[in-house]
Amino acid sequence: MHAFGGVGAHPELMAGMPEEVAREKTADVFISIVLIMSLTSALLIAWTYHGVMSKIGILVMGADKIKEGDLDFSINIQGADELSEVGVAFEEMRLRLKADSVRRLEAETNQRQLVSNIAHDLKTPLTAIRGYAEGLLDGVADTPKKQQSYLMVIHNKAGEMDALLNELTAYSNLDANRIPYKFMRLGARDYFTNLAEEIGIELESKNAQLVYYNYAKEDVVFVADPVQISRVFQNCIANSVKYAKKHEPLVIHLGVWPEDDSLHVELKDNGIGISEKDMPRIFERTYRGDASRTSAGGSGIGLSIVKKIVEDHGGSVEVHSHEGEGTTLSFVFKRTKR
């Protein structure tokens, strides 16, 4: 009697079979098992190739594109396995890289535009300084009064250059998110009264007028950096002066009043206003409105600095304007207890 060790061989069933028949049966079972295993292997290989290798191929393609600096593609791997999760993570990484690339490109564009704006605007005061200095050297200013007038122009133009260079520094701090703050508790009445006095004196020298009113009582307090808040309103005043009407005296209203747990400040002028098409972009860095409406210079970052500082204080700013009817800036700061 022979022992059968093949898979699927049942001694009870084969005990009564002739030896040749039993061998044939065993061979059939063995062949069937080999065929089943081969088919299973083929299916596993096909699944591996299509389900795994294809996903790996997509990821490799994506990695090659990123290496070449191409981020304009997408990774879309369907499924619930680990490679599909890797594909989702890869796509999120691509989107973050693309967003960072767009922001970096915008920053570079803004920087180039800022340098171009300032370089262009520096030419005007430099030309004036050179011209009046040559007038002094050549003896054109032959009286003390004329000499004083020439020197005053040179002084004012140097101030314009200084303001432009300060804007360049401010942009660098803004771009690097390095605006220095020294927060402290400020009495709204005293702080804005002192600020209004400074602004009023400056406007008088430009033949402009400040109308100031403050309804805040002595106990109205807010937390802020006095230097940076001063910069906010100095920037806004500078914009009002730049965009004043040519044949109408500039009048600026500065109002302060408390309301519930907030402090409201409003700055309103009677300038040329802002066109409807410019309104959505006034807070963008380096954006300047239609040059045909005014000869005002500037880097175009004044209001972007204003918005940044106010929001860093937990406040908000809104602009309301109509072309030819002036501009109103409304600020809201958080009050605190004295």
User: What is the N-to-C order of secondary-structure elements (H for helix, E for strand)?
Assistant: HHHHEHEEHEEHEE
Number of helical regions:
7
Report the sheet with the most strands, covering strand number, pairing sense and barrel closure. 7 strands, mixed
Runs in which pLDDT lies below 50 for 5 or more consecutive residues are 1-9, 291-295
Oligomer: single chain
Mean pLDDT: 80
Radius of gyration: 38 Å
How many domain units?
A: 3
How would you sum up this structure in a few lines?
The chain has 338 residues and is α+β, with helices and mostly antiparallel strands. Helix content is 55%, strand content 14%.
Break the fold down into its secondary structure elements and pairings.
Blueprint: H1 11-14, H2 19-67, H3 82-137, H4 144-175, E1 184-187, H5 188-204, E2 209-214, E3 221-224, H6 226-242, E4 251-259, E5 262-269, H7 302-312, E6 316-321, E7 327-336
Parallel strand pairs: 2-4
Antiparallel strand pairs: 1-3, 3-7, 4-5, 5-7, 6-7
Describe the fold and architecture.
With 338 residues, this protein is of the alpha+beta class. It folds into 3 domains: 11-67; 114-175, Signal transduction histidine kinase, dimerisation/phosphotransfer (DHp) domain (Helix Hairpins), CATH 1.10.287; 184-336, Heat Shock Protein 90 (2-Layer Sandwich). The protein contains 7 helices and 7 strands. It has helices at 11-14, 19-67, 82-137, 144-175, 188-204, 226-242, 302-312, and strands at residues 184-187, 209-214, 221-224, 251-259, 262-269, 316-321, 327-336. α3 (82-137) packs antiparallel against α4. Residues 1-9 and 291-295 have low confidence and may be disordered.
